[in-house]
Design brief:
This protein has 834 residues and is α+β, with helices and mostly antiparallel strands. Helices cover 35% and strands 17% of the residues. The longest helix has 26 residues. It has a domain of 283 residues: Beta-galactosidase, Chain A, domain 5 (Distorted Sandwich), CATH 2.70.98.110. α10 runs antiparallel to α11, α16 runs antiparallel to α17 and α17 runs antiparallel to α18. The protein is globular, with a radius of gyration of 28 Å. The strands form seven sheets. It has an eight-stranded antiparallel sheet with strand order 4-5-6-7-14-11-10-9. Strands 1-2-3-8-13-12 form a six-stranded antiparallel sheet, with helices on one face.
């Protein structure tokens, strides 16, 4: 559907073409296009299932506005109701897999939730319809299909709720009836920035049946062929506690029923466990339906700004068209190369990618931050980790800041439903192949959170709902803690693709402005790549984020700096050495590699090779951004840093004794020594593209990767060498298990080096071909057996473990399948995506 320019913009566009306006035509035209892109994009992204911590929850990208969600549960006995009601995604629910079979953030998709305990599969078809100026319409079809072996008289309750978190109103339009509501239920409301709207909850098809057996007297009071409705006023900060609110209503109704009929004459649970019908004003509204067997109903949101309302017929048609269009677009965006072009990998790939997109959410709220800047946080004294721990335990050290908001994808709906800096850059690599404009919005949302010092919190735990999923000891963020800056991956890719598009240009600014019909100047269909097709718009975007990006870069250099001169280390540069803050003897959480072995005990003179590599990758990226927007003085400065970093990686971190890259520390004789635990740390300069193709050290890195007694396994690269004393010990989180994000980086680099003439080309190409197959086949095998993507995979058996439904960076297998089966010097890849 075409998105039309408002009349005010038409006037501006017309003025741009007059002779008097020639001098400012380009500048004004850019302003028009940038603003129109922003408007249309925001409209298409306004609504979504942006509460990914729920099996199904909807909200707009407007803080303190409206939230909605779905609950369901089996109601055929009194004892188990509390355990069977589903709302938030929980690993303990033992689902038989769940998630989106197909999904696009701008249009919608189809989700299936396999619920064996409740003997039912829940299907949700969510669609969006353009129209009006307030995000348009949306609808969701909820369908319950009894699972094989389910009782013929299976009884299920379904609950849909809507809550207002701020200003606005919402009220029932049906005639109130204490016995329940007949027919469709209609709510109408108004919220700032959304204006007026209505929500219809339909009765569904005639195949829907209420339970046929029940308490006769109570049936006359509250027949289940009607819809129960409950409205109430709750504190705005508690609206997200929908399940608690629902259970309070169930309890109140049950106690009244019990008091009236007594325990000996209680109605059955499918009647007793219903919410009381109340019709007063409130900011929280629930509707409850009880079914026997399968069921179906629609939830239809209509914006009053659109000329026609949302209907079930429109929903049906959109469900049909979205399914076919997604399939075609997905195959074009991610064509699978041999051996993964077989039909059995099709749904696997779609499922993984759809659930990555389905994990995108909008978050808003306060954060817990410790800005005491205690001297112990400088970590400059012996035993600094103990001093820091004591400082963190001081009363009132942490305070609430904000609120802030973030548009982001997440690692895992049940376990990590919030934004992680370490993860997000990996998430956005496949997303950018699908929709670069969406990707850039997410990057901008993250970069907007950079504070005046340049710090970007590594974990975004915004608001009470997000904090409810995080143990208290992990909620506080510290402004001296860093995290791998993976957002620079995506910005590098953006620059690469801009250069590619610039060679063929596509539609430029002048071509947009020269179109005869200004009313059709810009279409929402252009959105996935409009920044790539218009260098002027891309430049404006880069300029908008550059100040915060630059400040963040220099924050890393200052806050994570390491000591070179003070320990008389021999290195090209006395400045390019870095140390993760936040170390303890067992962990370096800030590095993202948690329990990976480091120097024992921690020392203020440590230098970390992975962190220096990250700074090198950042430097390369921000140098290119600076060049793209004409910041030439910055380019010259970054070039010096980049050269010095590459020199220091070898000078400070290459161990001739161990033939690998290592961390460095200070020994008892106050000498700088290497601490070598071969594993992911050892190959970071390789992973981040900081090695020359003809370097002897590259050969040694490839040997380490290829050795089955070190990193190589039939399921992917181990995180720690099999020979290391810490292999498989302790928490065993990053001490052997296979992680897909690092394997992806390795495969990407092997493809690069395998495509370039050099002494190690054949070795890299052979490793690339085998590792690519090993990783994908193992993830596929686990998905086929369990229905899930997993956080990590056992290094010996390949079995998925830790968090299930980990469709953050594990979804990178979609990109790996998209890579060529083999590489050679002729098949040079299109730029370096990293």
């Amino acid at each position: 559907m075409m998105a039309r320019l408002p009349l005010s913009l038409l006037a501006v566009c017309s003025a741009l073409l007059t002779p008097a306006a020639t001098a400012t035509n380009t500048e004004n035209g850019q302003w028009v296009l940038v603003n129109e892109i922003s408007r249309v994009s925001n409209q298409s992204l306004m609504w979504g299932p942006y509460r990914p911590n729920l099996y199904f929850g909807v909200k707009p990208r407007i803080p303190k506005s409206m939230i909605a969600g779905l609950m369901w549960g089996r109601v055929d006995d009194f004892a188990s109701v509390a355990q069977t009601v589903r709302h938030t995604c929980e690993q303990s629910d033992d689902m038989a897999g769940y998630g989106w079979d197909e999904y696009d953030v701008r249009t919608g998709g189809h989700q299936v939730i396999g619920d064996p305990r409740n003997s039912i599969d829940i299907h949700t078809d969510f669609v969006k319809v353009e129209g009006g100026e307030n995000g348009g319409h949306w609808g969701v079809r909820v369908k319950g299909i009894p699972r094989t072996g389910a009782p013929a008289d299976l009884k299920t309750m379904a609950v849909f709720y809507v809550g207002l978190e701020g200003l606005g109103s919402l009220s029932l339009q049906n005639e109130p009836d204490e016995r329940g509501l007949v027919g469709d239920v209609t709510l109408e409301g108004s919220i700032p920035k959304l204006a007026e709207f209505k929500i219809d909850i339909t009765t569904g098809p005639s195949t829907n049946k209420p339970p046929r057996v029940g308490h006769e007297k109570y049936w006359n009071e509250k027949p289940l062929d009607r819809t129960s409705y409950h409205s109430l006023k709750v504190p705005e900060e508690d609206v997200w506690k929908a399940k608690d609110i629902f259970f309070t209503g169930l309890r109140d109704n049950f106690l009244k029923v019990k008091e009236k009929y007594g325990e000996s004459d209680l109605p059955p649970p499918w009647q007793a466990f219903t919410i009381p019908n109340t019709f007063g004003p409130g900011n929280f509204h629930m509707v409850q339906k009880v079914f026997e067997g399968g069921f179906e109903f629609d939830i239809l949101y209509s914006s009053a700004s659109a000329p026609t309302a949302m209907t079930s017929d429109i929903l049906t048609e959109k469900i049909r068209t979205i399914g076919s269009s997604f399939a075609d677009r997905f195959e074009n965006s991610f064509p699978r190369e041999s051996p993964f072009n077989a039909p059995r990998y099709r749904q696997f790939a779609r499922n993984f990618f759809s659930n990555l997109l389905g994990g995108i959410g909008h978050f808003h709220g306060t954060s817990v931050v410790d800005r005491t800047y205690a001297p112990e946080y400088e970590e400059e004294d012996e035993g600094f980790w103990e001093e820091a721990k004591a400082a963190q335990a001081r009363p009132d050290a942490a305070e609430l800041e904000g609120p802030t908001e973030l548009f982001t994808s997440i690692p895992s709906r049940p376990f990590f439903p919030r934004g992680f800096l370490w993860d997000e850059g990996f998430h956005l690599l496949p997303i950018s192949d699908w929709d670069m404009d969406l990707t850039l919005q997410i990057v901008k949302s993250w970069i907007s959170l950079v504070d005046e010092d340049g710090w970007l919190p590594r974990e975004q735990i915004l608001g009470d709902e997000a904090r409810s999923k995080v143990p208290q000891e992990f909620q506080t963020q510290y402004p001296h803690y860093a995290n791998p800056p993976t957002l620079f991956f995506v910005l590098t890719k953006f620059i690469d693709q801009l250069e590619g598009f610039q060679s063929k240009r596509g539609d430029s600014m002048s071509e947009y402005l020269d179109k005869e019909s200004f009313s059709n100047m810009f279409s929402s269909d252009d959105l996935p790549a409009v920044h790539l097709k218009n260098p002027e718009v891309a430049s404006e975007y880069l300029r908008s984020i550059y100040p915060n990006l630059r400040r963040n870069y220099f924050w890393y250099r200052k806050s994570q700096s390491g000591e070179i001169r003070g320990w008389d280390r021999n290195a090209y540069s006395k400045k390019e050495g870095y140390r993760w803050r936040g170390r303890t003897p067992e962990h370096c959480l800030t590095s993202g590699l948690d329990d990976y072995p480091r120097a024992r005990p921690p020392h203020t003179g440590e230098l970390h090779v992975d962190l220096l590599s990250w700074i090198g990758m950042m430097t390369s990226c921000i140098k290119r951004i600076a060049a793209a927007i004409g910041e030439h003085d910055d380019v010259a400065e970054f070039e010096q840093y980049e050269y010095a970093i590459k020199k220091n990686i070898d000078d400070l971190h290459w161990s001739e004794k161990h033939k690998t890259y290592c961390d460095a520390t200070i020994d008892d004789f106050e000498e700088s020594v290497h601490v070598c635990h071969k594993g992911y740390i050892s190959i970071f300069p390789f992973l981040l593209g900081l090695m020359e193709k003809d370097s002897e050290r590259l050969g040694k890195v490839l040997d380490l990767i290829a050795d089955p007694e070190e990193l190589w396994s039939n399921h992917g690269l181990r995180s720690l060498s099999k020979k290391d004393e810490y292999y498989g010990t302790g928490e065993n989180y990053w001490r052997g298990p296979i992680w897909i994000n690092i394997n992806y980086l390795a495969i990407q680099r092997l493809m690069e080096y395998g495509s370039k003439e050099g002494p190690y080309q054949k070795q890299a190409a052979d490793l690339y071909k085998e590792l690519r197959v090993n990783v994908v086949e193992n993830v596929y095998k686990n998905w086929e057996a369990t229905g899930y993507a997993w956080e990590q995979y056992d290094a010996e058996t390949g079995k998925g473990q830790r968090t299930a439904h980990f469709l953050g960076w594990t979804s990178l297998v979609v990109k790996i399948m998209n890579m060529p089966e083999t590489v050679s010097v002729v098949a040079t890849p299109f730029k370096d995506e990293l």
